[in-house]
Sequence to fold (765 residues):
Amino acid sequence: MAVQLEGEATLTSEDQHSTEDAVLALFKHAFLNNAAQDISLQRELHRAWLKKGLVSLPPNFAGLDASRPWFVFWITHALELLGDYDEPHWSYQVAGFIAHCQDPTGGFAGGPQQLPHLAPTYAAVSALVVAGTEAAYKVVDRKAMYGFLMRMKSPDGGFKMHDEGETDMRGCYCAIATASMLHMLSDELLEGVPEYISRCQTWEGGIAGEEGLEAHGGYSYCGLAALCIAGKADALDLHSFLKWAVHKQMSHEGGFQGRANKLVDSCYSFWQGAIFPLLHEAFRQKGGSMPLPDDHCWFSPQPLQMYLLLACQHPNGGLRDKPGKSADFYHTCYALSGMAVSQYDVQGNTSIVGDIHNLLERTDIYYNVLVEKAERRSAYFNSLPPLEIDGRSLQGGEGPGAVAWRKRVLASRRVQEVDASPSSAIGRKGGYAGGDVE
Amino acid sequence: MYGISEDRPYSKREEWKDVTPVPQKDGPHPLAVIKYPPGFEEVHGYFRAIQQRNETSLRALSLTADVIENNSANYTAWYYRRRCLKELDSDLDEERVFTNKWATDCPKNYQVWYHRRWLISEIAERKRKEAGAEADKHIQLLARQELEYHLDCMQVNSDYKNYNGWSHRQFILQHFNLWHEELPFVERLLSEDIRNNSAWNHRYTVVRNQSWPLSDEIRKREIKFAMDAIRACANNECAWNYLSAFLGEGNCKVPWTAEPEVEVLCREVIDVAAQHGTCRMALQAMASINEAKGDVQAAAALYSQLEEVDRIRAKYWAWRASLLGAV
Ligand SMILES: [Zn+2]
Fold:
């Protein structure tokens, strides 16, 4: 039989073609009407839309009543990335509301008086880190939290999402990131975790939600970030992981898909996009003489930003998954987070598509809060005496991988601030998309 | 009995008059405040009251159905519902009917599928305890019905890649040890859509559970399956990925040079593709073959070709080339 390049059309190829067409039509429209430097992030629009949602949500959000700490995190973090988080205004309220989602037995729930659950626990703690005040940090009952995290450990090395609940890769990330942010990541909490995550790395190279399932961008981020935080990414086959991840950037659309032969989706800008700097760290953790790129770690930041700016901004504010969808807070948070990740390389040099004011604040690839906020938090928790649990002091702290990365980022930033020329508006090296549009 | 019995507000119902609803404690500074639709707050108020009393009763069970009707992602309600079902020793076949619509209507909801997983295990467990000559037959039937149900869900929603659904299917196959019957199902799905990566992944997992460690015969069969798929549609990333699951270095793999017809196919695809652009997967496979042969120059040439034609991954290809000298 002779080789067919395209073969017969199927559901997958039809969906792919119509998405590709919709995205390329928007690109064409933009290039006909704008100069490259006019491509801009509609900050005003997004800010207004985000702030409205932080206060109140319409009745059709009733189905998300078990995710309220997520809304607080998604929205406040998105505002932070835009440089528009009004700390004195919001932080008090964030601390007050999140406190009402805390369970007396430890952990946070999806809303007041619900069952504690690992996903809103991560969201709540991250929202408190974004809030950034001592009063916010103090909301967390750390002793009870540690008990909750240990109680969620399942015998296979993973974590249950809640009492008698499901175990999957989200649990690993939520538990490890939470423990690390609160400086209580211990050996007993990590026991069996690298083996569990390694068993979920698939034949494709990425990580699945559970052993046997398909490699997936979201779960891949969760597994890799959890291991990188703990400094244990050598449990994975990093080369096959990278090979899988690079192929998830779409040749035409520029954004990422979550799995092979699925459609482009803006939230994977973060889940997949952050995998590259994490893998860079993982290779570094592993050591050896292998040369590593320092310039945006193997993927192409400019087409990704092009996709987000031209195809994902909703005219009424917020960002969407893809053209034809409505904007939502989840996609807005992760589209902006992914854009921020793609704008800074390992050294802190920037790569910005369009208007230079499209530059976002830098996010910490381990926790997805601003680097400054991650640092401020660590200064506070470092100043506390060790936690006493059952008469012994907890042998735990922040994950060494997360500490090392932040230290390097902050050090290179200080060097750059010294080097920055006074004429530079942002104090760092910026770049325009210019003619680099394919 | 377990569903929603009526429309009257709870405050007007005789059987609920001993219960005072518990309001939601949002505190003085609530954020992300949802303007709840009519009835939502009342149902949840009674649900909070029931939890506070730690009551597991028939009315509590039917109340959880009402909460779930208002918000099917309310994991607390699903959790509490399982508690009631256990303590009341409820009829679980009836519960299966109750959950039927949830997985088809909300296929991306974690709670629904997890509930279903618990339910099927529990039903099987009970049947096993009843023992009897027919127990095994009933359990096998239950499991097969569940596999049918997964297929129905995919067909109804015309979504053959739903992650939670696949998770359910693999759980059933594992729990009831049915992997050996699964290959025809995979082949059917792949014949409908050769680009469905969930089906490719499932194929690998079936092989992993059924034929591990791999014999040469099974490996050859899988390599041939991937090569045939590549022939029929060479620009399909899944088939190339599947091919490389059996070639290279690693557990149960053989070197890229072990099956000479792979190289023949790569050359053929590269030739055909040259007339219409390129096939990056074929070039990548060819580079792997050359690396396996130790032909660094040929591999480097392919990586630099990839750097040219696959611009979005240019940095990756350049890096791969740079590793050739380093190792
Ligand atoms: Zn998405």
In short: Chain A touches chain B through 86 residues (CB under 8 Å). The beta strands of chain A are 56-57, 185-186, 388-389, 392-393, 396-397. The first strand of chain A starts at residue 56 and ends at 57.
